[in-house]
Amino acid sequence: xxxxxxxxxxxxxxxxxxxxxxxxxxxxxxxxxxxxxxxxxxxxxxxxxxxxxxxxxxxxxxxxxxxxxxxxxxxxxxxxxxxxxxxxxxxxxxxxxxxxxxxxxxxxxxxxxxxxxxxxxxxxxxxxxxxxxxxxxxxxxxxxxxxxxxxxxxxxxxxxxxxxxxxxxxxxxxxxxxxxxxxxxxxxxxxxxxxxxxxxxxxxxxxxxxxxxxxxxxxxxxxxxxxxxxxxxxxxxxxxxxxxxxxxxxxxxxxxxxxxxxxxxxxxxxxxxxxxxxxxxxxxxxxxxxxxxxxxx
Amino acid sequence: xxxxxxxxxxxxxxxxxxxxxxxxxxxxxxxxxxxxxxxxxxxxxxxxxxxxxxxxxxxxxxxxxxxxxxxxxxxxxxxxxxxxxxxxxxxxxxxxxxxxxxxxxxxxxxxxxxxxxxxxxxxxxxxxxxxxxxxxxxxxxxxxxxxxxxxxxxxxxxxxxxxxxxxxxxxxxxxxxxxxxxxxxxxxxxxxxxxxxxxxxxxxxxxxxxxxxxxxxxxxxxxxxxxxxxxxxxxxxxxxxxxxxxxxxxxxxxxxxxxxxxxxxxxxxxxxxxxx
Lengths: 297, 276
Hints:
Chain A is an all-alpha fold.
């Protein structure tokens, strides 16, 4: 039962990350996902310090707020300070993450909220923390319930907001030209990324969540001609990562999260190889004609 | 030179806009007529794209404003269509030609709904007009530059607007596409649509457009092409580029202007790389 719970929780998180990660990649924001996953740390710690408990809800809120702040700081550095995007990201998340580390080490010393756990996560403990009814009946791991709710939220958001999300991803200027608020979509989307990231903390940790956000969708991207297929493939690769990673860890007797991220990398390599093989046969090479008409002046 | 039409499609009032405090447009003020093909022409960095972005409300001007059909953009948004530069989007995006054209039917009001049958018909018609119906299901990364530009035009047509603002639609397209775009523009004009095009090529501008706006940060001229294309005004817009100007001046003196595009190409076709 424990194995099933672990795989199920990991799969749910991997699907959430894969769906959002697909849009992150297409928005050329894969590294922003990376940044958020680290920068939510002070949010979690602050939420813990304020609420005084390790309850998930305050932490989720704290993390989501910090995630949104991260994107805003990155945007501000780019627009107001004239920094390049990669430099803005680098400054923002390392600074916020460091702030979180200081907060943990100096204020929460005696509580079970250490950087090891935040960095690497421990999915093996997921089945131990169950969600119980008042009569003591166990309904399964708390992490599964929470990540499941987040996944449902993400699916609802993508189904309902598909057009807006795609339009603002593909062509922001055009979306703005027909009066659609690109800032709203950006904010809504980034809030979901923050939420997903913090939910993943308990299982895969801050560093390895990036693997789930980027590797399965990147593999799917290589094999897809349309977005719907890419989302389905991301889902499939997410599940494969969870299952494959778990058994890899079992075989190697190592960290489950590490094995999952490793497996995600292997999956990506496989997808890459496959895309190279198939593109040779189909022979549909994009044609570009950059002929410059006006060489006159 | 600033000729004012009656019932203008676009009025630009004292527009000043800048990037990082560097002014790109300085106190630009003009009006454009309805039902014409209008070219916004000027040297590189003269603020052509910035002007278009300000018309479309995509950036905030430092001062001044733009009226479309005598109203603010928000009141007439559905009558206006914007075609960004082709290079501004990622053509490797996993979407089909039809997916992109359907975006032309997206509205604030139907963003959370499915497109109607009518919407789909309009998209099919738009694709047919640009001659890409056969490629409707093709992924956009597999298109040539000219075809990509036509996808953008089809999306714009699907919007069923009255005013079209296009940013450099002739850049990087093949001769066939260029001709088909021109035919399309002429047809749109005959239907009473107004088309405003940012264009960097002075040579073809005279041929393509009825009305020309000469821009170089400040407004140099706005009026019928015959009145705008004078050596003095071109000199004002293109400043130091004397080689260009002397050539244009020669052409005008010989009264062989406009030089036909085709002849020009043939002459150039020798491929000896000489500058003209």
